[in-house]
Amino acid sequence: MISWSSPAVPAVPGDGVPLRLFDTARGEIREVAPGPVAGMYVCGITPYDTTHLGHAATYLTFDLVYRLLLDAGHEVHYVQNTTDVDDPLFERAERDGVDWRELGDRETDLFRSDMQALRVLPPRDYVAATETIDEVVEMVAELVDRGHAYRIDPGVDGYPDVYYRHRATPGFGYESGYDADEMARAFAERGGDPDREGKEHPLDALLWRVRRPGEPFWPSPWGEGRPGWHIECSAIARNRLGMEFDVQGGGSDLAFPHHEFSAAHAEAATGHSPFARFYVHAAMIGLDGVKMSKSLGNLVRVQTLRQQGVDPALIRLALAAGHYRTDRSWSEALLEEARSRCGTWCRAISRGAGADSATAISALRERLADDLDTPGALAVVDAWAEATLAGDDSDPSAGSAVATALDALLGLAPAS
Ligand code: 5CA
Ligand code: ZN
Question: Which residues pair with 39 in a beta bridge?
Fold first, then answer.
């Protein structure tokens, strides 16, 4: 699938700082320390009702990861999927009387356009689930061959779906750190089917769903059907990044079951562990204290704000005012605060000369490399702007140096 076009990333004066991130699996912040090419997989959208500010916040978080890795001298091999075959997509298509493919294409186009407007760096591989059915079939076959998967007895309901034995890997649960009760609750809430008759255990996860009337299907050794959800990301990431790639990312709602099973499937299929070196999760964005979600319909869309004439850079700045690991709410006040901050920064930058830029840029890098401390980073720029506007003009080219750093590290265009 085509990605979107990349904004230019200027080189920032001075040296980048090694990135440290919080890894959900180990529950600690440590240095990412990738090789020359960092591998990053971020779970993409299910293309209906995009792009709300929760989605935007998550992709902006990983855009910062990308930019900091670049600044620290690494190349980044970034892979993202779109889940263009899934129940909620079919339900929405049915409700609206459109073909599910058409709905998926339209929403994916909208997402690309929003990402481009937000100046998010595009994935090198942007991969639709429908493009990788053969990869999924191959990986399910590996799991079946290794004895990690089984079929539902056709006598149960006539649908011999293929399921994954959740205890196939000894470390199952290491990624989320959830205990049995938390797993049971999250599995039921987030796309699992604990009550499916014929499963060996309620937590076993769907790998291949055999054809049901009215649903799309592809051929496989287990009959015509379609992939389960977790195996999709597992196969796409493993086949492009290999095992032990650097960062597996997404929103915190994916920590279990999705990322736990994506990791477990790949580990069970290959006999290698871990799937990823870091599992990184962006907190949830809400509206009036409730998680923004397509199923609840309490959405603020990037598109709507753009149509109202809001500069996408202000959306970036408003979301960056909170830390990525803190659940937070979107509000008009947040946007206003970003507008006022942006105005102050622009006035300071347009002076040309200003307070020492090398000190400010190095502090900015330090804050961002410390588990993406964006509130701290914004405070650094606030202090630089304040000193500059108070008359400090000791650095003759401070304005352009700071503008370059904001562009490269925070994705904020010089013009905004
Ligand atoms: N297609 C799957 C991942 S394979 C999926 O979760 N799609 S999604 O469209 O529901 O979400 C896309 C991304 O946005 C995911 O990383 C998800 O964790 C994140 N996300 C969804 N809602 C929010 C929210 N309210 N705040 C922050 N991130 C969110
Ligand atoms: Zn995923």
Answer: 77
Give the Cα separation of 15 and 25 in Å (integer): 30
Tokens of 182: 């938390």
Q: Which amino acid is at 328?
A: R
Nearest CA to ligand 1 atom 22: 54
pTM: 0.97
Instruction: State pLDDT tens for residues 154-163.
Output: 999 999 999 9
Question: In this structure, are residues 183 and 142 in contact, taking their beta carbons and an 8 Å threshold?
Answer: no
- Report the C-alpha gap between 32 and 34 in whole angstroms: 6
78-93 pLDDT, tens digit each: 999 999 999 999 999 9
Give residue ranges with CB within 6 A of ligand 1.
Answer: 43-46, 54-55, 57-58, 81, 83, 233, 250-251, 253-254, 282, 284-285, 291-293
For helices 312-320 and 53-71, give the axis angle rounded to 10 degrees: 80
Q: Residue 70 is encoded by which pair of tokens? A: 């670049």
Å from CA of 199 to ligand 1 middle? 28
Q: Which two tokens stand for residue 406?
A: 């904001």
| pLDDT tens digits along 393-405 | 999 999 999 999 9
